[in-house]
């Protein structure tokens, strides 16, 4: 399993991703 928690991304002063969580189980396909 891969798990990402509380992801944030900004470009200059613009926050484009705010607190995203993602979990991918073994064998799961994510488009």
Concise account of the structure shown:
InterPro entries: P-loop_NTPase. The chain is mainly β and 31 residues long.
Beta-strand content bin? over 45%
Note poorly predicted spans.
none
Number of strands: 2
- The value of Rg in angstroms is 12 Å
Strand count, sense and barrel status of the largest sheet are: 2 strands, antiparallel
Number of alpha- plus pi-helical segments: 0
Mean pLDDT: 95
Total discrete domains: 1
What is the rounded distance between the termini? 16 Å
Helix content: under 10%
Alpha-beta classification: mainly beta
Quick one: overall form? elongated
**Lateral arrangement of strands in the main beta sheet:** 1-2
Oligomeric grouping of the chains: single chain
Helix and strand pattern = EE
GO molecular function, one term: ATP binding
Protein name: Amino acid ABC transporter, ATP-binding protein
Keywords: ATP-binding, Nucleotide-binding
């Amino acid at each position: 399993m891969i798990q990402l928690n509380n992801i944030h991304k900004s470009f200059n002063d613009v926050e484009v991703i705010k607190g995203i969580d993602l979990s991918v189980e073994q064998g799961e396909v994510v488009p």
